[in-house]
Input
Amino acid sequence: MSNIVIIGTQWGDEGKGKIVDHLAEFADIVVRFQGGNNAGHTMVISGRKFISHLVPSGILQGKQCYLGNGMVIDPAVLIEETEKLDKNGIDVSPEKLKISEKAHIIMPYHKMIDKAREEINGDKKIGTTGRGIGPCYEDKATRRGIRFIDLIDPDVFKEKVNAIIDEKNFYLKSFLKSETTDLRQMMDEYTGYAKRLAPHAVNLSVAMRQAIDAGKKILFEGAQGTHLDIDHGTYPYVTSSNTVAGNACNGAGVGPRDIHGVVGIVKAYTTRVGAGPFPTELFDEIGNRIQEKGAEFGATTGRRRRCGWLDTVLLRNAGRLNSPTGHVITKLDVLGGLEFLKICTHYEFQGKNIDEVPASLTALAQCKPVYETFPGWPEEISHIRKYKDLPKNTKNYLKRIEELTNVPIQMISVGSGREETIVIKNPFK
Ligand code: GDP
Ligand code: IMO
Ligand code: MG
Output
């Protein structure tokens, strides 16, 4: 298979960064197609940890990387990230790292609006990352956004900012009771970012076509997870972009026939950061143990992640939405040492077993997970590199996931390090 999309099947933080980094070895190009620096993708190479928020996780493998038109980009964060990578000897030159001219730019007022809205919403807040993601996509949809191509043309940039700034400041001050944007300071800062980033600009769709025609292998890197999708997730407790595999086409400017495989990343249990429904959430000692052993803290905001049992209703929903050709199970090592494990097979709703995530949050709140219980395994498994060497109970757990999702498991991650991986079938081969 030449071109593969990698997406999260749950609520994000499934370990996409680790798997993209691992598989980038077999790709020529890695493209992020949606989201912004709400994402935090962790890679651990020879014991050193890298967290990328914007730069595709293929950069550490020295691959050609693109930031897609479907993304929202905070230029200050991008510059900081590339400077860090550069200091570590990683090539982030304009030849290696390219930015779609059509990606949207996060402005200071987007971040201020995001934070101020969360504040006034009190206990009804979404629990956003506060990075201005929603307000930036909002301006894109209302056709008042600033694209990368607009940022790097000083006249167009000035005209676009002047057309919107009074409205943004009025809304910030009068409705949100927040600080307002200092126009002069913002123009100075963003003019600097524009000069710095302009050499990275690319017409992404054209670049993708050329690469595909030249027979290059492309890995499309998703951010967030299927149940944070703006259409298909647990709305309104979602992010503001489409996180499902189909959006790789829109967000990178390719057609569906150019995608040959979809790999769904499945954490061996479930986590969620931020507010919103979570039927299999654990509030007991087991939940705390998983949280601690899995070091489940947000890679972007440092917030403690909520933890629960694996939910295959979510996974089958993700199966319908993404048509995965394979699954990668991550963080399986974290479940080691538990006496027993549970897998949610269905939800019970009004006395019946159901197999989908209801759109109504009122209905979802009434859903009770139906579980199967499995014996755990006491052995440490992080050193294992072959499926056949896994303990019997671990294999039984994996087999049941395969049966309940009807998607073959292609890889298993047993630790955060690049090499702590069992490959059953390489998705690129
Ligand atoms: P992403 O957003 O999907 O890329 O995931 P994050 O990087 O936000 O969160 C995954 C966390 O789990 C990171 O700290 C990874 O280093 C870590 N991780 C990934 N795979 C494994 C694994 O198989 N075992 C363990 N113990 N940690 C893992
Ligand atoms: P990666 O790519 C986990 C969550 C936020 C919040 C909701 C909306 O690392 O898996 P936003 O700032 O996007 O408007 O917040 O979405 N969220 C994530 N949760 N992983 C992520 O990314 C996330 N990106 C956003 O916590 O609940
Ligand atoms: Mg993350």
